[in-house]
Amino acid sequence: MYGHMLRIHGEHLAKGQALPKNTQAVGNGGPQRAGSMMGAAEVVAVAATPVTLGDGKSLTLMLEDSDDGAAFAALPVSFRRSAPGGRTWAGGEVLGRLPLPSACRRHVRVVIGTDDAAASGSMDVVFDYLPR
User: Fold this and answer.
1) How far is CA 100 from the centre of its chain?
2) Are 41 and 130 in contact (CB under 8 A)?
3) CB of 111 within 8 A of CB of 61?
4) CB-based burial label for 128 (10 Å; 0-12, 13-18, 19+)
5) pTM higher than 0.85 for the full model?
6) Lowest mean pLDDT: which of 28-32, 115-119, 123-127, 128-132?
């Protein structure tokens, strides 16, 4: 099973979402119920189509949580991937992983950002359930 991800159908924080260009965007999958997973999952960003970042530019993933699904606050985890010399990731390649804090509140969403006005490609952000 090494190298495989265990996803649940329909549970995604972003699906085929185009990279934001020099800004941030909330994942198009909206908030998902993820509280009380107790470390049983991590959040994984995967290139849905080839993802390209320019020289010295970066991709940032942040998680936010909420009790009511309306008022979100940043969680203390984030991921930043830079592309010295520029880089393209093929469709299906993992762009980054974030641990889901065991104390997060009921609803979780992702915020995707780049500092590249020419960023291209799209990505999926999903929960990868970890074997126990």
Assistant:
1) 11
2) yes
3) yes
4) middle
5) yes
6) 128-132
